[in-house]
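User: Structure please.
Assistant: Input sequence and predicted structure:
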Amino acid sequence: YIRNNKNLETFWTNSNLNSVFIHCAENEDYIPNNFLKKKSHYIFSPDSKNKYIQAILASDYKINVERYKYNITFCGNPAYSIRENILAELIKNFGTINIFSRSYDFYKSLDEIQEKAILNEYEKEQYRKSYRGYVDTTKELAEIYLSSKINLDIQNQKEKPINYRLLEITASGGFALVPYSEKIIKQYDDGKEIETYKDIYELTDKINFYLKNIELAKVIAQNGK
């Protein structure tokens, strides 16, 4: 499981590697071409030109929590225009939320939000206060998803396929609120296993609804799991 490109040269050249499964949220260009061509190696990346597997080991996300810690949570890189716009609207509507990401990505998004002038000074401070740090392990991530009333998936792709984030949320037993797409509702029962939204207005309406109807959100989350 590669989170960064430190010491990768040793990894790629290790002769003992027979089959490797890589989840890379970033661009795969730094992976040597001869490694990508091996039939026994699989790359999981939304932008992958190679083999794309939509799968996780669900047992890695088994965890118990006794109470909610967070209302609205987003885990991932916020430094994409569509995500910045949506997160900014949520700040306007709900105040401080919960954003887990690498610090570099978060502060890049903050700079871009400032350049676009989509938040006033008070709202920018609320956005800044929404940063909760970087999640280092799968168990930590599962705990965040399970202890959040609403987990957001904000796609930065037009096609909106099922992505790794949605699989992790549902495997953890968390309630997932995701962009609507035909691909997603073929795999998940919309309104029974996950909840979808088509625009920012529907997103804010559904956040308000499920924050007031948390028991229903729990049932949907359990069905999704």
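Residues 81-94 form the longest helix (14 residues).
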